[in-house]
Design brief:
This protein is of the alpha/beta class. The protein has 4 domains: 211 residues, no CATH class; 83 residues, no CATH class; 102 residues, no CATH class; 116 residues, no CATH class. The protein has 25 helices and 10 strands. The strands form 3 sheets. Strands 1-8-3-4-2-7 form a 6-stranded mixed beta sheet. It has a two-stranded antiparallel sheet with strand order 5-6. The longest helix is centred in the first third of the chain and has 23 residues. It is elongated and about 100 Å long.
């Protein structure tokens, strides 16, 4: 598509949007009506401000896919268009009520009919049925046309309505109340009609963005960076995929929508694009985030391909969800996997996901899957947690490893380890990086610090210790706020260099740390360390002094042990 035909834009008020026979439909697959009272309240307050100032008010962009003969599909903006239509319906209803009360009866009926035909829908001269200007999605449109457009209360009351129908009816009642408060005392229909024609439809200004297809809509979304748009990247991906199913019947569409809901419920709405990219990267050459929509557009072109993709996504979604939750019952079938997943989450890494999604389809033994998760955890500790290399290489290598697994080029665990070699930091580099590690003792950094200290303690002392279960505090040997005596040789700059180094931390029982160690001078702390059950703390009792050189030497010793703790035979 040439750039000149990518989109057309106009600045239009609501009157211009709804004039000249233009009609709008919300695709079947789009989300239901979701605005709530805070949104209605904001709109009403904006209208009151506009009425007082007589200045235009920007309502953001509406993105429309052009159809046939002035017919448009609403890609973004349905919540605003639906809410404004309901506001006008409430104004129409108020005019008919005035007429029913005998207040300027003929004039108010005529005003109501003119507002209906101008902004809501006109009667077809042959069928005498109203042809609505706005149609909502499959779930909401029947209620919108049969109840709201006819201003009929729901049969059986609100209790039996679906959630979005309750919101639609609640919106109508909200504006009914606001209009009654504003216009009922004067009972002047002309003022209500003027409010619609001079304020609601002329002072609310939109940028109308008209595109030719979903790919253009996605490009607009990226260009505007979602600013002012209602749609998320997930919405746009969903809209494209399910647009190919738009012509199937409502009964056929329902299970498709339910399947989509199950997938996004597991993967998460916000995380869905990331999940989709991991899924693709477990099966094909590397896809970058910016290429995601174009890749889907190119590769998924038929309804059968949509159904196939959704089936595969549903299988992968449970794994994606579990990989983000070490406590998930999902891991009960994979003994010892929880610890590896916990570590991966602790260091906030996800680039390994395509390899696991591929491996779970190829390696049938749960123990093999656990072992691959362990490989990923060790690689992540070395690459992300300690050496802090650029993550771009990670994604590339995990993608290649996933394809080797699926292509039967990596048939064994040894093959998988070899595939990961490019991102396995060599011992010499890992030891050097480990010897300079610094941590804050709080927050996420503090949790990672406990993990490293527990692993070093287990390696040094041989005891079975786990950082997530141990009853220990993290002790600053050189205190963060030293006492008045005993630490004079640590001047400001030296203290700054030393107190957050890994070599200056140790594990200590809570009662020993809180009651006896604290900010005391080092000789007193040594007496406390000698009482600890942790070998790395006991060892401190034999130190002659505690200075910068001792801290560096202790951390270098930890770094040598770390090479063994986080090691793969590659």
């Amino acid at each position: 598509m040439a750039q000149s035909t990518l989109l057309n834009t106009d600045t239009e008020d609501l009157k211009e949007l709804l004039s000249n026979g233009k009609t709008y439909s919300v695709p079947t697959y789009q989300r239901d009506y979701s605005w709530k009272e805070e949104h209605w309240e904001d709109l009403w307050e904006d209208l009151m401000t506009i009425e007082a100032s007589r200045e235009d008010h920007y309502m953001g962009a509406v993105v429309l896919e052009s159809g046939e003969r002035k017919q448009f599909r609403v890609i973004d903006g349905q919540q605003r268009m639906a809410t404004l239509s309901i506001l006008i319906l409430a104004c129409v209803d108020h005019l008919y009520e005035l007429a029913h009360e005998g207040v300027d009866e003929d004039a108010n009926k005529e005003r109501a009919a003119l507002l209906e035909s101008s902004y809501l829908g006109a009667k077809d001269p042959s069928s005498l049925r109203i042809s609505p200007k706005l149609k909502l999605n499959a779930n909401d449109d029947d209620f919108f046309q049969l109840n709201l457009a006819q201003r009929k209360p729901p049969h059986g009351g609100v209790r039996n309505l679906r959630d979005s129908e309750k919101l639609l009816w609640g919106c109508f009642l909200f504006f009914k109340r606001k209009l009654a408060d504003k216009f009922a005392p004067k009972k002047k229909g002309a003022e209500i009609a003027a409010f619609v024609s001079e304020i609601v439809t002329e002072r609310l200004v939109f940028i109308s963005v008209r595109v030719q297809d979903q790919l253009s809509a996605y490009t607009v979304f990226e260009t505007l960076n979602a600013r002012g748009l209602e749609l998320t990247e997930t919405d746009l991906l969903k809209n494209y995929l399910l647009s190919m199913a738009d012509r199937i019947s409502k009964s056929q569409m329902e299970p498709v929508l339910k399947q989509w809901a199950r997938i996004t419920s597991r993967a998460g709405i916000a995380s869905f694009p990331e999940f989709l990219r991991h899924h693709l990267n477990s099966r094909r050459e590397y896809v970058r985030q910016k290429q995601l929509f174009k890749t889907i557009k190119r590769d998924i072109t038929t309804l059968e391909q949509v159904f196939s993709l959704l089936d595969m996504l549903e299988k992968d979604a449970s794994w994606f969800e579990a990989l983000g939750d070490a406590s998930s019952e999902f891991w009960l079938d994979y003994p010892e996997a929880q610890e590896q997943v916990r570590v991966l989450n602790l260091f906030n890494v996800s680039q390994f996901t395509p390899l696991v999604l591929a491996a779970k389809d190829v390696f049938k033994s749960p123990s093999d899957i656990v072992e691959i998760l362990r490989y990923c955890a060790i690689v992540s500790i070395r690459f992300n947690g300690v050496s802090k290399r650029s993550t771009h290489l990670l994604e590339d290598i995990y993608n290649k490893a996933a394809l080797e697994v699926r292509g039967s080029r990596a048939k064994t665990l040894s093959d998988v380890r070899k595939a990961l070699q490019p991102i396995y930091i060599p011992d010499e580099e890992f030891e050097a990086d480990f010897s300079t590690l610094r941590f804050k003792a709080r927050g996420t950094s503090g949790k990672r610090l406990r993990y490293f200290l527990a692993k070093i303690e287990k390696q040094f002392g041989g005891s079975d210790i786990n950082d997530s279960a141990m009853d220990a505090t993290v002790e600053h040997i050189l205190p963060e706020n030293p006492g008045e005596s005993g630490w004079e040789h640590f001047q400001n700059e030296t203290h700054e260099r030393c107190f957050e180094r890994l070599g200056n931390y140790s594990l200590l029982e809570r009662k020993l740390n809180g009651q006896q160690a604290g900010n005391a001078a080092f000789p007193h702390k040594q007496f406390v360390y000698a009482q600890s059950k942790y070998k790395t703390s006991q060892e401190l009792a034999s130190s002659h002094d505690w200075n910068e050189a001792e801290i560096i030497a202790r951390q270098a010793k930890m770094a040598k042990m770390a090479k063994t703790v986080w090691s793969l035979s590659i």
